[in-house]
Design goal:
168 residues, alpha+beta, Protein Transport Mog1p, Chain A, 7-stranded antiparallel sheet, 3-stranded antiparallel sheet, 4 helices, globular
């Protein structure tokens, strides 16, 4: 017979969401753009993209998608990081994102809203390398997962850091 404390521990462990228990949090560093981000527990990532700018990840239950990437500013707008953010926001809005939250400084930006499929989209971008590069993540999930994803966003935001600069 199991001791009550062991039985309680097993019940608690069994109550952990399979999506959050699938994998431990893992730090991902991108050599091309010199950024790091902590991939949350419960997310599994594919290989780095062919152009080595980032990767895509999925929660264990498949409900949430996480993309992380870096890029050079000035490729779509002439005014550095702020131009990149404004271009991305307009492009996302043109694609059907109803933006409901925007916070932007000279070194970072966050915005979120609901896409045309009703999914919540949260994007965070940071400026790096004297405004010549940026790093970003985008988390997309159904509204029913909002309470579960809030601490995921809270963990992702401070973990996204630019640590080195790219020469190419």
């Amino acid at each position: 017979m199991l001791k009550p404390s062991l039985l309680l521990a097993l019940m608690i462990v069994g109550a952990v969401s399979p999506a959050m228990a699938a994998t431990a949090a893992e730090r991902y560093g991108n050599a091309r753009f010199g950024y790091w981000v902590t991939i949350p527990a419960g997310f599994t990532c594919g290989d780095e993209s062919d152009n080595s700018d980032g990767k895509s990840c999925t929660s264990a239950d498949g409900a949430a998608k996480l993309a992380v990437w870096g890029g050079f500013t000035g490729t779509v707008a002439d005014d550095g990081f702020s131009g990149e953010v404004k271009f991305d926001m307009k492009s996302d809005a043109d694609d059907g994102l109803k933006i409901t939250y925007v916070k932007m400084t000279s070194s970072w930006a966050s915005y979120s809203g609901t896409d045309k499929d009703g999914q919540i989209v949260y994007r965070r971008m940071i400026s790096g390398c004297k405004d010549s590069q940026y790093a970003a993540f985008e988390l997309t999930y159904p509204p029913s997962e909002a309470a579960v994803m809030k601490p995921v966003v809270e963990q992702l935001v401070p973990s996204l850091k630019q640590e080195t600069c790219s020469a190419n």
